[in-house]
Amino acid sequence: MPEERLTADDYDAIEYFHREKGDITRWSRWEERKPIIREIHPELVDAIERLTAAERTLLAVVEFVLKYH
């Protein structure tokens, strides 16, 4: 059962994967810890979801431009 709070290790991992890897979701415990992160810091999960959508949109636009230039 997941812990009901974020630990210092969780915060360290979030910081590390954001600053060093550029992608918090590369953290192996991201999906496991995401529900508690969403509860405590919904803005973080929202920002990551919006970033993912923006990256997919950018990829689609670039592919369209390259195909029809």
Keywords:
single chain, 69 residues, mainly alpha, 0% strand
**What's the order of the H and E elements?**
HHH
Low-confidence stretches: none
Estimate the strand proportion: under 5%
What about the largest sheet? Answer: none
Number of helices: 3
Mean pLDDT value: 95
What proportion of the residues is helical, as a percent range? over 70%
What's the overall geometry? elongated
Radius of gyration over C-alpha positions, nearest whole angstrom: 15 Å
Give the N-terminus to C-terminus distance in angstroms.
Answer: 52 Å
Structural class: mainly alpha
The number of strands is: 0
How many structural domains? 1
Fold blueprint:
Blueprint: H1 8-19, H2 30-40, H3 42-67
Give structural notes.
The chain has 69 residues and is mainly α. It contains 3 helices and no strands. It has one domain (8-67). The chain has helices spanning 8-19, 30-40, 42-67.
Could you write a compact summary of the structure shown?
The protein has three helices and no strands. With 69 residues, the protein is mainly alpha-helical. Helix 2 crosses helix 3.
